[in-house]
Design a protein that fits this description.
By secondary structure, this protein is mainly alpha-helical. It has helices spanning 3-24, 26-34, 36-49, 56-79, 102-118, 125-149, 162-182, 189-208, and strands at 86-88, 95-96, 99-100, 153-155. It has a two-stranded antiparallel ribbon with strand order 1-4. Helix 1 (3-24) packs across helix 2 (26-34), helix 5 crosses helix 7 and helix 6 (125-149) packs parallel to helix 8.
Length: 209
């Protein structure tokens, strides 16, 4: 790992640590939550800056996953048939017909992170999609209580259904497979580290709040 990558990972760890502290302090909580869209955008953009091989296929893959993720959420919210009955709050910023634009970015980020973490460890696309879907589903399980607490979205009657996790696994599998149809997996140390940092971040929120 190069020195610049190590420094970026260190800075990211500090930023997320400051975020946890800001959430813990009641006086700064709303300001930290309000920065969620900025944090999501930077969490995807910064690793991409350090991407070793930029290809047109990678760009198409990210745009495609973001759009697919957005419209999966659109169908999910407006029908209740995919993940269960839920609706979005204001934390993720502006959107269209109740669906924040940043949720598409979030799907693209997580797919990119999961593929990066598995690159070089699993030799075929189907294996990466299966393992990646498992990672993303575990991530969602850890994240869900914190996301609700932060006002990203809300579940009907406050209950997160098992259906949500089953759908997350299936959707993640399909989206990772689609991503790999456009581009080859490549290891990105910053993306992999950010995935681990986000696991810790939402794990701490789950424990503390």
């Amino acid at each position: 790992m190069q020195g610049a990558e190590k420094r970026v990972i260190g800075i990211a760890g500090i930023i997320y640590a400051v975020g946890i502290t800001g959430l813990y302090i009641a006086g700064t909580r709303s300001q930290v939550i309000g920065l969620t869209p900025v944090n999501l955008a930077l969490s995807l953009l910064v690793p991409l800056i350090f991407q070793k091989k930029w290809t047109f296929g990678l760009l198409i893959a990210l745009v495609c996953i973001a759009l697919c993720g957005f419209f999966i959420e659109y169908a999910g919210v407006h029908t209740g048939l995919i993940f269960g009955k839920y609706h979005y709050g204001k934390t993720l910023g502006p959107g269209w017909q109740g669906i924040p634009y940043m949720i598409g970015v979030n799907w693209a980020m997580l797919v990119y992170f999961a593929v990066s973490a598995l690159s070089g460890r699993i030799g075929n696309a189907w294996g990466i999609a299966l393992a990646g879907a498992g990672i993303m589903t575990i991530y969602d399980y850890i994240m869900e209580p914190g996301a609700v607490w932060m006002g990203m979205w809300y579940w009907s009657k406050g209950v997160i259904p098992l259906q949500n996790y089953i759908a997350w696994f299936i959707c993640s599998f399909v989206l990772i497979r689609l991503y790999l149809w456009f581009t080859k997996p490549e290891r990105n140390n910053i993306a992999t580290a950010l995935l681990a940092i986000q696991f810790v971040f939402f794990g701490l929120i789950r424990l503390l709040f």
